C-alpha cells in the first residue's frame, strides 16, 4: 500500500483497472463524478509513470509529455472505450474543471508568496517575455520563408497563432478577426491555425523538460523554481501556521480561490476581460494590501500543493482526450511547418534565456516562463510547467500566456487590417 503509481497505492491501482474492465464489459460506465475521477486518474497516472521511467524521455518531463498528447492518439485509435471518452468529456466541458484547477494553482501560489518577491517578479518577467516574443517573430518568419512558405502564411498562420495564448482566448478571437478582415469562413481559418498551436505547445513542453535538465547539470543557471537570485523559495517564507495548518484553514483558502475565480467570470461577462487575468491581479492586490492573514496563507499553500499533486495529470489527460484532435496535431508535422514551428518556439525560449541576466532572473526559470507564451492556454501552461517541475511559476506563466497572447492577437489584427 506504500508503493504508488502516481498517487494511487499499487493494490488500489490494480483493483481500479479490474473495475474499469468490469464496468466496460457490462456497459456500466456512467457520467457520475466518482467514475470520471477513476477513469482520468487511472489513465493519467499510468501514462505519467511510464513517461517518468522511460530512458531519455524522463529527462525532458516525459510524464507530462505522454499525458499531454498520448490520450489524443488513444482516443483516435479507439483504444479508450467510447463510453469512457463520453463520460470524461461531458464532465470536463460542463464543469469547467480546468478553470477551477488554474484558480487553485494561481491563487494558492500567489497568496503563499512573499510580497516583495511577488512584485519584483511581476515587474521583471516582462523583459525576457518581450525579448523572446520579438526573437520568435523575426526568426520564425525568416525560417518559414526560407522553407518555401509564403511570408503572409508564415507570419499570420504559423508564428502568430503559436503566441496567441491558446485556443479559447487566442485562436478563436484571432480567426474571427481574420475572417472579418478577409471575408473568409472562420471555421476554415481555425482549422488552418490549430496545427501550429498544438505542435508549438508540444515543442514548448519538450524544451521546458530540456531546460529543467540543463538546470540540474548547471545549477548556477537555475533556481529550481525560484525566479530570481536571493529568494529562498518563490512560494515565499511560509507562515509558521502551516506546520499546524488545520482543515478549516485549507477549506477557507479554497473558498477564497473560488470567490476570486467567480469575480473573474463576472468581469468577463460584464466587460469581456479575461477571467484568469482578473483573478490573478485580484490575488496580487490582496497580497499587496495585506488582506490575507497567515492562516489563509498557510491554507493556500496546501491548496496549491494538493492541486499540483492530485489534479495536474488527470486534467492534462482529460484535455488531451477531449479537446486535442489527433488529425490536427499530425497536420503540423509537415516538414516545412514543423521546422518553422520549432524554430519559432526555440527562438522565443532563447531570447528569454539570454535576457534574464539583464534583469537579475535565473535564465532557466525565465526561459520556461517565456516558453509558456507558446502554450495552449491554461492547459498548455500546466503541461509546460509540469514537464519542467516548475508549477509554482504558474502566476508568471499566466502573464505570458494571457497578456502576451492578447497583445499578440491585437498587433496581428492591426497589421492584417493595414495590409488589406
TrEMBL record:
Pfam families: 2HCT
Molecular functions (GO terms): organic anion transmembrane transporter activity; symporter activity
Transmembrane region(s): 6-26, 33-50, 56-77, 97-113, 125-148, 155-181, 193-214, 247-267, 273-291, 303-323, 329-354, 399-419
Keyword Transmembrane: yes
Organism: Pantoea latae
Keywords: Membrane, Symport, Transmembrane, Transmembrane helix, Transport
Stated family: Belongs to the 2-hydroxycarboxylate transporter (2-HCT) (TC 2.A.24) family.
Domain of life: Bacteria
Protein name (Swiss-Prot/TrEMBL): Malate permease
Cellular component annotations (GO), alphabetically ordered: plasma membrane
Amino acid at each position: 500500500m506504500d508503493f504508488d503509481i502516481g498517487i494511487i497505492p499499487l493494490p488500489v491501482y490494480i483493483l481500479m483497472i479490474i473495475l474499469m474492465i468490469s464496468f466496460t464489459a457490462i456497459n456500466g460506465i456512467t457520467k457520475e463524478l466518482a467514475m470520471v475521477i477513476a477513469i482520468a486518474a487511472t489513465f493519467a497516472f499510468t501514462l505519467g509513470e511510464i513517461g517518468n521511467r522511460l530512458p531519455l524521455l524522463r529527462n525532458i518531463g516525459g510524464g507530462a509529455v505522454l499525458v499531454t498528447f498520448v490520450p489524443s492518439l488513444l482516443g483516435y485509435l479507439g483504444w479508450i472505450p467510447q463510453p469512457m471518452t463520453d463520460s470524461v468529456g461531458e464532465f470536463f466541458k460542463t464543469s469547467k474543471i480546468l478553470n477551477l484547477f488554474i484558480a487553485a494553482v494561481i491563487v494558492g501560489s500567489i497568496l503563499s508568496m512573499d510580497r516583495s518577491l511577488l512584485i519584483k517578479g511581476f515587474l521583471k518577467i516582462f523583459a525576457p517575455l518581450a525579448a523572446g516574443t520579438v526573437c520568435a517573430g523575426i526568426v520564425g518568419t525568416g525560417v518559414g520563408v526560407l522553407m518555401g512558405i509564403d511570408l503572409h502564411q508564415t507570419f499570420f498562420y504559423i508564428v502568430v497563432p503559436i503566441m496567441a495564448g491558446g485556443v479559447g482566448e487566442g485562436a478563436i478571437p484571432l480567426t474571427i478577426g481574420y475572417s472579418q478582415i478577409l471575408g473568409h469562413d472562420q471555421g476554415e481559418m481555425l482549422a488552418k491555425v490549430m496545427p501550429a498551436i498544438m505542435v508549438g505547445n508540444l515543442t514548448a513542453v519538450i524544451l521546458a523538460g530540456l531546460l529543467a535538465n540543463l538546470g540540474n547539470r548547471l545549477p548556477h543557471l537555475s533556481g529550481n523554481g525560484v525566479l530570481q537570485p536571493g529568494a529562498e523559495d518563490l512560494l515565499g517564507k511560509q507562515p509558521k501556521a502551516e506546520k499546524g495548518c488545520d482543515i478549516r484553514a485549507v477549506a477557507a483558502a479554497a473558498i477564497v480561490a473560488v470567490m476570486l475565480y467567480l469575480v473573474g467570470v463576472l468581469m468577463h461577462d460584464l466587460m469581456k476581460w479575461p477571467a484568469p487575468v482578473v483573478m490573478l491581479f485580484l490575488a496580487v492586490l490582496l497580497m499587496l494590501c495585506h488582506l490575507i492573514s497567515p492562516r489563509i496563507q498557510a491554507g493556500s499553500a496546501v491548496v496549491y500543493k494538493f492541486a499540483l499533486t492530485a489534479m495536474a495529470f488527470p486534467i492534462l489527460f482529460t484535455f488531451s482526450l477531449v479537446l486535442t484532435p489527433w488529425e490536427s496535431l499530425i497536420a503540423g508535422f509537415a516538414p516545412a511547418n514543423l521546422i518553422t514551428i520549432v524554430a519559432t518556439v526555440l527562438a522565443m525560449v532563447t531570447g528569454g534565456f539570454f535576457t534574464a541576466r539583464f534583469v537579475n532572473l535565473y535564465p532557466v526559470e525565465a526561459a520556461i516562463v517565456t516558453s509558456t507564451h507558446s502554450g495552449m492556454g491554461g492547459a498548455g501552461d500546466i503541461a509546460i510547467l509540469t514537464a519542467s517541475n516548475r508549477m509554482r511559476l504558474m502566476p508568471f506563466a499566466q502573464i505570458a500566456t494571457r497578456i502576451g497572447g492578447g497583445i499578440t492577437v491585437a498587433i496581428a489584427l492591426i497589421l492584417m487590417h493595414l495590409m488589406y
